[in-house]
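Training component of the fellowship. As part of building independent skills, the fellow (R.M.) carried out the full modelling exercise for a liganded target. The chosen ligand was 2-acetamido-2-deoxy-beta-D-glucopyranose. The inputs are recorded below so that the supervisory panel can assess the work.
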Amino acid sequence: MAISAWILAPCLLLFFSPASGTDSTNNPADQLVAAINSNRTAHKSTKLFDNPGLGCIALQYIKAYQGQCDALGDNKKPPDSSFADTLAPNCGVEAQTLAPISGRLLACQSKYVSPDQAFSDILIRNAESLQILYNKNHTQVGAAVTGTDGGAPYFWCVLFSSGKTNSTFVLEGGVAKTVHPGCFSGNNDDCSGAARLGIGLWKMVAGVLIAMACAVGL
Ligand SMILES: *[C@@H]1O[C@H](CO)[C@@H](O)[C@H](O)[C@H]1NC(C)=O
Ligand SMILES: *[C@@H]1O[C@H](CO)[C@@H](O)[C@H](O)[C@H]1NC(C)=O
Ligand SMILES: *[C@@H]1O[C@H](CO)[C@@H](O)[C@H](O)[C@H]1NC(C)=O
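Fellow's submitted model of the complex:
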């Protein structure tokens, strides 16, 4: 009895763990926003509105880097004019509702990590990024994550804005244009990390094998 409980517990954890990559209702971009907001509120900063129009733009923003991690920080950074010229129209965000971007956080690496780890290990890594996180001008946020061609490298992008929360980054007809692959926050999208981001299939296979071993072990 005691032994089977010891076996059962890890098996259940495996089945329900998002890390197994089989949870189709996951949206890592929403989870990143949750991590940002919980860290901000613990720091007595305001909770930011998760704006889907801004989230979609964050996903478009990543695309400017064309999957090149080493382009972060150099001249691949999209010019401010691109918000009106390409990013907003590609998402179906009404151009006249664009508002100032009050901060951006961007990171890229070849390994896929959980949203919590992306937040604490790669996006927030120095005093400067902490300052961006806690900036009092932010009212809203949009986040996105994408893999290139359904695999590594994985880009994480967070855009903050100081615009009015319900009248900026407004989506035409209330829905974002399809901008997959990738996941963005605020749109109630079912964005499975495995399906949309191309997280290694072997992980799912390993998950299934271990789950099967568990079932057999019982
Ligand atoms: C907020 O995030 C920073 C960076 O990861 C971390 O150092 C700090 O401890 C976090 N604060 C809370 C309250 O979780
Ligand atoms: C907040 O916005 C004001 C007005 O745009 C600007 O002058 C100020 O530097 C901003 N504060 C921070 C912390 O970025
Ligand atoms: C947006 O905010 C204004 C003023 O606070 C309010 O009157 C309006 O109903 C809000 N619109 C939506 C869609 O929430």
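The panel noted the following from the submitted structure. The first helix runs from residue 2 to 16. The mean pLDDT is 82.
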